[in-house]
Amino acid sequence: MLKNIVCWLFLVGSLQLGLAHLNEKYTIDIYAGNLNNLTIKSEPFIKINDGYYYFGMDGVNWYVAYEKCRALNSELVTFETLQEFEAVANYLKARDHKFNYWTSGNDLGLEGSYNWFTSGQSITIPKWAPKQPDNSGGREHCIHLGYIWGYSTDFELNDRPCANDQNSLFRYICEAPEPETISIVVWK
Q1: Sign (positive/negative) of CA torsion 115, 131, 111, 54?
Q2: Does the structure show a pLDDT above 80 at 94?
Q3: Of 56, 94, 82, which is closest to residue 175 (Cα–Cα)?
Q4: Phi, psi of 54 (to 5 degrees)
């Protein structure tokens, strides 16, 4: 333990001395944002408004969908605003992708209390299908987005079994954090 502390102190001291020396010879400026509006590659994610989304095409249960998103360093989608929900729904409608998609929503923590898994916030957007969520059969705990009823004309939210149900193998939407860039320019 003492060895680790001494090594850490040596590293911090060396860094400070190095930066002090650099400051004498070079001008160091730090800027925030995307300088010169560089194009940032976001594949396999698609930029929709301010968000980055991946649309998984294979039908899986909620847990596998979550694992697939985590493998992409992302999370199942959390709709924080009605505008975000509408933007994603409009993107899917424009491509005629009227499928069911898992979201991060569930009531796994407390039955009947539906929250976004990734943020812990209550699901407040008014996009539930009529008479949903209903926890049909006492086993519907995960939330998906889809055209719920035969007469549905838009994407809505509904609860379904998270796993162990052949009728609940859905596509999924992953949401990634906004990419960050770092540039280092040294002027001599």
Answers
A1: negative
A2: yes
A3: 56
A4: -125, 130
